[in-house]
Design brief:
By secondary structure, this protein is mostly beta strands. The chain is about 0% helix and about 35% strand.
Length: about 170
C-alpha cells in the first residue's frame, strides 16, 4: 500500500538549524525538517522542495541562493558550500534504484545512496540535474540542463548530457 511522504508544511523552529537573515519565499516545502540545515543568509526561492532524510542531512552554506522550483532529496546526504547559486528547476538527487533483472519492476529494486557535495562558490545552471555521488570542487560552473555525475575539479566550466569539463573558468572558449 502506498504511503504519503507528508505535506511538506513546516515551521522555522522545525529545521535542524536556521542561520540569521535567511529569506524563505512562499510555497517552499520542507520534508523531515530536523535534517535540513540553513546557514546565515540563505535564500530559498518560491516552491523549492527540500527533502531531508534520517539517512542523510541536507546542509546549505552561508549566502547560498536556491532558485524557484529547485528539488533536493538528501537520503544520501547533501553538502552545499557557501555562496553557491542554484538556478530554477535544478535537481539534486542522492538515491537511485539498483538495476533489477526482468521481469521485476525497477521501482521494486533496492535503493542505493550516495552523497552530493557542491563546493563553495559554485553555480548550478537552470534545470541542471546532479546525480548521486557527484562532487563539485570550489567554483565549478554547471551549464543549464546538464546531467552531472562524478567528480569535477574546482574552477571548471562543465556542461552537457552527460556533463564534461569544457574549460577552466576564465579561459577563452574555443
Amino acid at each position: 500500500m502506498a504511503q504519503t511522504h507528508g505535506t511538506g508544511r513546516w515551521q522555522r523552529e522545525d529545521l535542524g538549524s536556521l542561520g540569521a537573515d535567511c529569506v524563505i519565499e512562499e510555497g517552499v516545502l520542507v520534508f523531515n525538517a530536523p535534517h535540513v540545515h540553513l546557514a546565515d543568509g540563505v535564500y530559498l526561492g518560491h516552491r523549492a522542495m527540500l527533502k531531508g532524510d534520517t539517512r542523510g542531512e541536507l546542509r546549505i552554506g552561508a549566502g547560498s541562493w536556491i532558485g524557484q522550483d529547485v528539488y533536493m532529496q538528501s537520503a544520501g546526504g547533501i553538502d552545499i558550500g557557501a555562496r553557491v547559486g542554484m538556478g530554477p528547476r535544478a535537481m539534486v538527487l542522492t538515491s537511485t534504484h539498483a538495476e533489477a533483472p526482468p521481469p521485476a519492476a525497477v521501482m521494486d529494486a533496492p535503493l542505493e545512496f550516495a552523497p552530493v557535495t557542491i563546493g563553495e562558490g559554485c553555480d548550478i545552471g537552470i534545470g541542471a540535474i546532479l546525480l548521486p555521488g557527484t562532487t563539485l570542487g570550489p567554483g565549478v560552473q554547471v551549464g543549464a540542463g546538464a546531467v552531472v555525475s562524478g567528480e569535477f575539479p574546482g574552477g571548471t566550466v562543465i556542461a552537457g548530457v552527460p556533463a564534461r569539463v569544457l574549460r577552466e573558468r576564465g579561459a577563452e572558449s574555443t
